[in-house]
Specification:
The complex is a heterodimer. Chain A is an alpha+beta fold. In chain A, 21% of the residues lie in helices and 28% in strands. Chain A has one domain (11-126). The model of chain A is unreliable at 1-11 (pLDDT under 50). Chain B has helices at 10-17, 82-87, and strands at residues 2-6, 24-29, 38-40, 42-47, 51-61, 68-77, 89-91, 99-113, 116-131, 135-140, 147-153, 174-184. In chain B, strands 1, 3, 8, 9, 10, 11 and 12 form a 7-stranded mixed sheet that branches. Chain B has a 5-stranded antiparallel sheet with strand order 6-5-4-2-7. Classes of the chains: A alpha+beta, B mainly beta.
Chain lengths: 129, 192
């Protein structure tokens, strides 16, 4: 795919939300699949928030963002607190530090994809020793 | 039971009311999709008399005792949009149509766990403009997403509006009750 490693792809080439769904399905081969179809969802809260524990949470979050945002138009924010990948009818967001200090990956679909929740947020937490 | 009110303030509603009876000129954003239907962070609306920004802002809420970042709708005065005009996209469709009515989409979500109410969350989720011959809505997209969905139709049917039911998924332990209303902003401009 053209467009280089960074910068905006031409607007007319925005990929469909189906690409994100496919990227998430691929990631679930290693991360597993929650009952609602998402990733690491806490079933108690019902709001689609999940947690993944890792030795290097920010690195793990970046890796997941990189995987599920593949094919998207990356929006480099002036504010380094957030990177967005834009798709037609979907967005994927990476925040190195959310308000509780953890790195976060979020995805959101404007239309309900097959077998996935419309929206999810995944916190990356330091593995307990 | 906890109550969360994330409604537009009086000042924000006043900014919207100030657009009534003016002529729609255009909308746009710096990061907006080519179909002009999905913008990030803000959408500016320019009319013959005023301009405003409809924004997505982050807020921390602790629905289930753990604080979490959510996105909520906001309205602020218009800014110098020359940067937007240079880098973003603008739609001038429906230009010069008079803004006849403005509505807010108001939602109330109630969480009930083991038959006990846990919280009530009220929010304004979209601003809807009725022009002479068109309807334009600018709506939040999700709970956390800072995207704004814009839809323009000849009738109010088919506007793409925030749908909380599809985002709050009931489980065996916790169920959600959602209601939505269209709230019309005052027809006459309020006086100081």
């Amino acid at each position: 795919m053209g467009g280089g490693k960074s910068g905006k792809l031409p607007l007319t080439r925005t990929r469909s939300y189906k690409r994100v769904a496919s990227n998430i399905n691929l990631s679930q081969r290693t991360l597993g699949r929650a009952a609602n179809g998402g990733i690491a969802v806490d079933e108690k809260t019902s709001t689609g928030v999940g947690r993944i524990y890792s030795n290097n949470p920010e690195k793990s979050a970046r890796q997941l963002f990189s995987k599920i945002s593949r094919g998207g138009r990356i929006v480099h924010r002036n504010n380094p607190k957030r990177t967005e990948a834009r798709f037609k009818k979907a967005t994927v967001t990476f925040r190195p530090k959310s308000q509780d200090g953890s790195s976060v990956v979020e995805f959101h679909f404007r239309v309900k994809p097959d077998n996935l929740p419309r929206s999810q947020k995944i916190h990356f937490m330091k593995e307990k020793e | 039971m906890k109550n969360y009110n994330c409604l537009l303030s009086n000042e924000e509603q006043f900014l919207l009311v100030g657009l009534l009876d003016s002529k729609w000129q255009c909308y746009g954003s710096e990061d907006i999709e080519p179909e002009l239907d999905d913008a990030l962070d803000y959408v500016f609306v320019e009319t013959s008399t005023e301009s405003i920004r409809i924004t997505m802002n982050q807020i921390s809420l602790d629905f289930f005792d753990e604080p979490e970042d959510y996105a909520i709708l906001g309205v602020s005065p218009g800014q110098d949009e020359s940067k937007t005009r240079g880098r973003g996209e603008i739609s001038a469709k429906y230009q010069n149509q008079v803004i006849r009515e403005i509505f807010l989409l108001e939602s109330e979500t109630r969480a009930i766990r083991d038959e006990n109410p846990v919280f009530t969350y009220r929010s304004h989720d979209a601003v809807i403009f009725r022009l002479e011959h068109a309807w334009i809505s600018i709506s939040r997209s999700g709970l956390w997403s800072q995207s704004l969905v814009i839809s323009a139709r000849d009738t109010r049917d088919g506007l793409e509006l925030y749908d909380p039911l599809s985002l709050w998924e009931s489980t065996l332990e916790c169920r959600f009750e959602v209601s939505q209303n269209w709230v019309q902003l005052p027809l006459a401009k309020t006086t100081n």
